[in-house]
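User: Hello! My lab partner asked me to get a predicted holo structure for this protein. The small molecule is 2-oxo-3-(phosphonooxy)propanoic acid, SMILES included with the sequence. Please write out the structure tokens.
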Amino acid sequence: MADGASFGVLVLNQISKAGLERLPAGRYRTGKDITAPDAILVRSADMHAMDIPASVRAIARAGAGTNNIPVAALSVRGIPVFNAPGGNANAVKELVLAGMLMAARNLPSAQRFVEGLDPADPHLDKTIEEGKKAFAGFELGNHTLGVIGLGKVGALVADAAIKLGMQVMGYDPEITVDAAWSLPSQVRRAASVEDVLKNAQIVSLHVPLLKATRHLVHAGNLRLMRGDAILLNFSREGVVDDAAMVAALDGRQLGCYVCDFPNPLILRHPRVIALPHLGASTREAEDNCAVMVAEQLRDFLENGNVRNAVNFPDVSMGRGSAWRVAIANANVPNMLGQISTTMAHAGLNIHNMVNKSRGDMAYTLVDVDSAVEAPVLTALAAIEGVLAVRYLPVSA
Ligand SMILES: NC(=O)C1=CN([C@@H]2O[C@H](COP(=O)(O)OP(=O)(O)OC[C@H]3O[C@@H](n4cnc5c(N)ncnc54)[C@H](O)[C@@H]3O)[C@@H](O)[C@H]2O)C=CC1
Ligand SMILES: O=C(O)C(=O)COP(=O)(O)O
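Assistant: Hello! Below are the structure tokens for the protein in complex with 2-oxo-3-(phosphonooxy)propanoic acid.
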């Protein structure tokens, strides 16, 4: 645990320098060999099998998806998992546009054709003119794009497609009010995944990988698609049943599959365009995400404030005194009563307090008028339902 003066942050992936610089060297040690870290900074490294040390107080994912992180198990330990909503959405949108164009204009196979040309061919011009006939495509304008998942990425994809002259239909049963407001009014609301697959010529998936979205596109609903349709998956491997998708391609139930997640099932399929998980790999997105999560992490480690955690409510309070206690607890009755009684018994006067909940998780920040002794923290931690307690005095 940090002594209030310095924090150790274990870094599991390559994180942009711009982000790491937000954790000043005087106060933070960052790197891949940090022992007993206070926090872990990660991109796509799979943490499910990792033994996450008891010292860890927070996880920061420099990106959007958190399916590589054991969020439920961390919640039980009162550990927030931060991410960077929207930090890489523009990068993904641009790659989705590239994917649509690559598929609609047959660009990968055209490129392979050109790479195979012989510079010594005396009839090169004629070979090219003959060859190009095989790659005639179609224009995106006036075709229908179906977007499944209208969050940060999906909304930008829908907007860009409308600007390209496409018709757009969208499906998202859990759309937030903010996301709904940010959608262009031309986006037609679809009734179901099936509605989208049946009626769109191009379908782009932008959902998180959850139990409910695993194999969202499967043999049963792939059958509804047009034989020349293009399916784009920049969400996650697992959202599409790849075995069923390959069968649909082979059975001419689907025209082309564009995705960011190559695997042995789809490699080298002539009508699959696969990229090596490049969606967020731009300088801009890498900087944005790293800066966002580094700042969120720093404010949490130093002040207990929570912004953009996927398993905690947003809770933020300006410092009212030098002595702050941050408590993560189960969202059950009488927690606040027990916390304030424990503090009162120790003679502590509460200066300011904020408590919020989100689902099963509640989080409380309490500023008190005098220093908190270790036995009080032990007593707070012993309250049934309290998951984590941190003492965050401002160092002199
Ligand atoms: N290829 C890459 O490099 C990247 C991939 N991603 C993937 O894209 C996903 C989406 O990213 P964002 O848009 O930033 O996240 P987001 O959280 O802003 O949006 C996700 C949307 O999916 C919706 N959704 C959830 N379940 C659904 C369902 N069953 N049907 C339809 N919609 C559903 C949610 O309501 C939400 O609006 C991420 O979770 C991640 O897996 C994100 C960024 C980069
Ligand atoms: O943000 C996401 O969900 C991504 O998939 C990006 O992954 P990456 O940070 O490039 O490993």
